[in-house]
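Board notes (copied after class):
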Amino acid sequence: MKRTWEIRNSRRLSGACTESGEKSGFTLIELLVVISIIAILAGMLLPVLNRARETAKSISCVNNLKAQVTACLLYCDSNREWLPPVRCTDYSLLTFWYGKLGGYWNAPTYGAKLGLVILNSSTGTYKFENGSFNCPAERLPANASLSSAVSFTRTHYGANSYLCGYRGTSAAGGKRGHKLSTFTQASQAIFSADHNWTGDVNGFGAVTRMSFRHGAPDERLNGSTGTPYPMWLKGKANVSYMDGHVQPRFIRDVVVGGSIYSAFSLGFNTDSGAGDYFE
């Protein structure tokens, strides 16, 4: 009798059916099978979720660049067709293209969001986040410092210095700006793109200054300077063009004729209509 009682209770504890036909629990094997299935499903779903998250970040980046080029066109409409300069003579925020388009201080706003966050007004400490000039796919933050190996300076994007021009620190420095009337094919004229230069706030005119961060591994840092290497092979850079469209581009798409510079001079006449307008 005692042996029969032990067998019945052992069956109940192990999850076997009781005399009434009801299940009293799971066996160890059943639990292991369920856990294994969950692990397999998680292994299948996590890469899909990660890709979906990165795709969402890239779409948000495209929207940022769309806001930038739209603001640029509105700026041109208000400034006798002149494009906003990459920067003027000094390094104050208002003199940079993103300060002008983002409505810094009392400047007109053209729809782009600057994303300026004041951390300490007495010390002038601030950062930039969640604005039209911050890429959600970029791991490094955008801070106020003009020279930093571990953060971008104010923005994750750069404007085309060949197109917009900039004022140098000397009479011989800088590039001349352009007007809308100089465009020959606006759909080829690059306005702005993902940028990889952490320690500088100028625009750029070379493929080596673009960041192909979308669809690529995380930025790999140079051990001596902390500067991120661009993602040459697998990743894409989002690029805005002066006809208003934005397009993700591989590096092979923007190296024209084997040159790292040529893509930044396409779509406009570099001689006609150029000047030194930096108001």
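Comment from the instructor: The longest helix spans residues 28-78. Residues 10-16 have pLDDT under 50 and may be disordered.
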